[in-house]
Amino acid sequence: MPKRSDIKKMLIIGSGPIIIGQACEFDYSGSQACKSLKEEGYQVILVNSNPATIMTDPEMADRTYVEPVTPEVVEKIIIREKPDVLLPTLGGQVGLNIAAELFRRGILEKYGVELIGAKFEAIERAEDRQLFKKAMEEINLSTPRSVYLNDVESAIDFAKEVGYPLIIRPSYTLGGTGGGIAYNVEELKRVAARGIEYSPISEILVEESVIGWKEYELEVMRDRKDNVVIVCSIENFDPMGVHTGDSITVAPAQTLTDKEYQRMRDAAIKIIRKIGVETGGSNIQFAVNPENGKMMVIEMNPRVSRSSALASKATGFPIAKIAAKLAVGYTLDEIPNDITKKTPACFEPTIDYCVVKIPRWDFEKFPGVNTVLNTEMKSVGEVMAIGRTFKEALQKGLYSLEQGRSGLGADGKDIDLKNTFLEEIKQKLITPCPERIFYLRYAFQKGMPLEEVYELTGIDKWFLYNIKEIGEMEEKIKKFSPLNGEKQIPPDLLRKAKQYGFSDVQLAYLLDTTPLNIRKYRKKKEIEATFKLVDTCAAEFEAYTPYYYSTYEVEDEVRYSRRRKVIILGGGPNRIGQGIEFDYCCVQAALSLKEEGWEVIMVNCNPETVSTDYDTSDKLYFEPLTLENVLNICDKEKPEGVIVQLGGQTPLRLALPLKREGINILGTSPEDIDRAEDRERFTYLVKKLCLNQAPYGTGRSFSEAKEIARRISYPVLVRPSYVLGGRAMEIIYDESSLEHYMLSAVKVSPEHPVLIDKFIEGAIEVDVDAISDGERCVIGGIMEHIEEAGIHSGDSACSLPPYTLSKSIIQKIKEQTYSISKELKVIGLLNIQYAIRNGEIYVLEVNPRASRTVPFVGKATGLSLAKIAAKVMIGKKLKDLGITKEKNIPYIAVKEAVFPFIRFPEVDIILGPEMRSTGEVMGVSDNFGIAFAKAQMGAGLSLPLKGTVFISVADKDKPSIIPIARQLVNLGFNLIATRGTYRILKENKIKVKRVKKIAEGRPHIEDYIKNGEVQLIFNTPVGKGPKFDEYKIRRQAVIHRIPIITTISGALAAVNGIKAMKKGELTVKTLQEYHQNI
Amino acid sequence: MNKSSEVAKEKKMKAILALEDGFVLEGESFAGHGEISGEVVFNTSMYGYEEILTDPSYKGQIVAMTYPLIGNYGVNEEDYESLHPWVEGFIVREYSQFPSNWRSKGSLKDFLNKYNILGVEGIDTRALTKHIRERGAMKGVISTEDLNPQNLVEKAKASPGLIGRDLVKEVTCKEKYIWEEKVRKKPIYYVVAIDFGIKHNILRALTQEGCYITVVPAFTKAEEILELNPDGILLSNGPGDPAGVPYATREIKKLLGKKPIFGICFGHQILGRALGLKTYKLKFGHRGGNQPVKNLKTGKVEITAQNHGFCVKLDKLPDLIPTHINLNDGTLEGMESEKFSVFSVQYHPESSPGPHDSRYLFRKFVEMMENN
Questions:
Q1: Which of A1009, A1033, A907, A905 has its CA nearest to residue A177?
Q2: Potential cystine with A489: which of A480, A589, A693, A741 (Cβ 3.0-4.6 Å)?
């Protein structure tokens, strides 16, 4: 069937900001879809509030709305654009929910917009657990017994019927937020109550547990002629009970016979037909009883998902791209397989390697958080590794995580096994947690039988045996000693160790030498990495798409060209502080250098990203971003240079080591990067340029730190040197807190000193992104933070252009930027953070690399900094590229951060110098207030236009809250406050009602919040943590999704936004239109 | 078996794989030892090694699995496709020592050892697959005894190969027998299945559709078959070159128009030859569970299980229409003649291993018998 010619304009909804459970995989799928639909000649209209996405680059769609992804805003876009169809299946759960909501409200019908891909009925049948269960019964498939409830009592009754454990899932929350497992009645009461609280409709699903069963996923595709194919099977390493996003997963399924696999395949095909997903991909999860093979259907996602992104990367089959083509009427047999070119997409990929995905958690950012893994997803990123064996893939994956490990242990970072009790190891095995994988090895080292490890973990014995084999290999290697002695490791064993995925770092540790010595020895013995293709067909057909992974085999299949080539190092797994923004820069650079005719080689290990789409670069190496793996690639490819400044701290850390091995680093030299990163050298630089810097010192011990703090006076800002995202950064007001920090919060040593800066209180923070070719420096954007200095720049909202700074200050900032750029001989990107107080400018930080704000600046100004930077790095001059003038935009763009607090009920939400946001949104308007309000809306917390505002501020903020409160009253809001704030407002003759604090009896403020009587909260914290009343208030605000603003500057901006919104209507406009007016 | 060979079985031995064109790879034996020869082919199924090993169509062949981890779920008798394995040798990237599956009754290694089949691991199976893809399936030798590659290449050249050879006689049953499985569906049809190397799942699938089956040897005369008075005749899969079994073609020709006939794989090729079509050798064949086949009648695509090195060449013939084609390379996958009430497919509707998309063909066979 040919594509549909009755449609011209289509609307695609993106997934909005990056949050836990919905990350850049939807930029990957959305970008693929946009590209592929434009290719077909359709006019693509896109809405996504997330500026850090490739899909929102103006050339990706015909009309791009960086606007809040809410039904109201999308309706405005529909009215303006009158699209023929809406494709709801590519924007994650958000995209699907919005589309369903628009349907329910009759908006799609009203404006004649057809849903393609999945019809409303199919979405509902898949999403509504009861309808889904019924559908499964009708096709004779089992699902766990379950019931929807609204109260705890009925849950207890249900438990009497089916027994424990039980799974509790609140309705309509994303990724299982607020859910949990109950093993007894006490837990059930607690988890059920919490679930009911979290659910926007106060409803929970209580379900019979299949904890400990084996978990599988199938990725299914269907076309409108009803052809169905399975793209990939995935087996979870962790059994049921751990969210699949938090599980180590393996592709293909390892422990099913053909009979069992085919039974699952048949079921998947029946399910996609029954649910009625017309075209596109779906993800179906199954649980299998390891004792007898009984199979149950757990759930289905009628859309592309995190798993489908993984499946695409694991097999080379581009699910989202094909889904888009199927949605417009093509059938699978009409679409060619990109990789083989000669065969159609209507087949099932077969692979000849093993793929392991490992999640990455950032719990250290959230002190006090419960790190036990359960049905609620908590990880913030993931890596994927490919090997010819499971052992190799697993070890490569653990190395890729960049959490200090170089494989499955044996790297000098293991616990002291001798002094660890078996009981402790057992506890770690019983409770799923991020470090469990390492404890499996410890258990075997302690001599625990495989059977027992299985009993404790429920992890399939096949996986356990493989882990045991890794340990056995380790023992074999250990018998040998350094490479020069008599007991030199035999080359055959070394090769085998590499085939088991042992890194040079692990081998160096085991053989008591250095990783570079291992490398030299390997090369001497001709034990070198070979690169194999990912080709969808296990080499049955010739592949044209150069997508590679390393392994230790006989044949190397890479076709090395003689073109001018460059390697771009990606950012690795997403984490807080280093996410999609850096991948965005890498992708832009790849596209830009392709334009220049260079061969672009991408190296990355993050399966969620656009950079690991084989379409993005000329060659893709799916590899850990480590010195060893990058050198292996350089050995073969011999690039002219490597770009390290775009992928964040990950590649930057490799700059000097690579350079030492003779690899040319493009752009700003590693030495100059070091001059900016190293505090002492940086101070010298600031002095040399006659700029201001907050007084500081470097403490190598508590006593040193104490001295410095006394000298520069409190408050001080402390942090370990060399960090990104403000890891372990704190503002400290007194000596006892400093002592606590130095002695328990960080491990200080002479090699790892702590930086102590004078904290400039009440300053305005400014971020500048600039670009330089070594001669000329052009500023891309100056952003004024809305929250004051001291709150991490990644967590702070900001405005481009600045909204309060004077012209002369801006001019000074520019000049300082130029002079720093010149001094550091920056070639490429440069980000500088300044603090401004009383007209005085302080340089806080200079980062000669891509920053988190590069994509935001690009969206706001139309200037693609990363693209230009890449060109500059290969020797182009800004003048030749026509980049000489700085852009002044006649509108305002506001960036706002998005936080994962709803996932971590134990964590206090107040902002600080440690970054905790996972994503960002942008709001654009001609008016600052509206831009700010849009950004809030995009972040999921729309500012109310009427109702009640609860105000509770710290004493120091009381004077500043008065004018804000007065404005709110003038805008028609009711104010409520607890004692202290109430008094100060009353004294100033502002109409306010007093409410009780939690300790003062009922009804207290929590009751008001729970009852929906509060629409907005201003709360500047007195203190952090659960011992404070206000902590509970903040938690309630998060759970009930009430906008809560924790800084005075934020409150000011919010009032500004409300005022603007009340005055004028919110209008929508495309980026293309905005950029036209510059 | 003497004691020293028992010891040898436990110990991994170096093994050399040599192809007739001089391509050599090194590995280790994980089961058995000695020296074997055969046509080296690759199979791209990720699951189902047990079914592959026991499929008589692999007689004369050394099978390399492209999926690198094999042995993961052990072996169980329920999944056998015949009474024992037939492959000459088995090549994998990594043999999994530890079988894990609730139905597993033992390890793949013990299974291969029991039947004296040489299993080799540690081979760069992707390099091997690419070589075969580019140069074609060819003769090869694996040895744990003679480790001189040059010698082995010569031995490979001297080995018999498949073309024109009758391998069917080595795998077909010696006497006719009745497939003892309870038929639960009615009405019951009586089918004679000609065993060119029949997979049990064909018999299971027919039984499920309500067929009662007598299996007869490949050399059975047409008259003997007609004497049994079946409602339909099934021509099974089998090993090697259909040109090597002229007697079968001759007998099938006599059956045309007498009874409904359903041919599968080798049976399809024999039917083709009986109808006057030619067969030829494919460069490296189709072996795997992901081959897309388009049903020309419905326009729908089936993902099919395949295992064949030879193929029917489609010439225009009166009364014969192609019904299925392979979407990867356009080769003929199915044909039908209404005049003779016969149809056949090159692929395996009984799958095992592989997807179940084409099971409808057994129903079609039953309908054909019904209408006859």
A1: A905
A2: A480
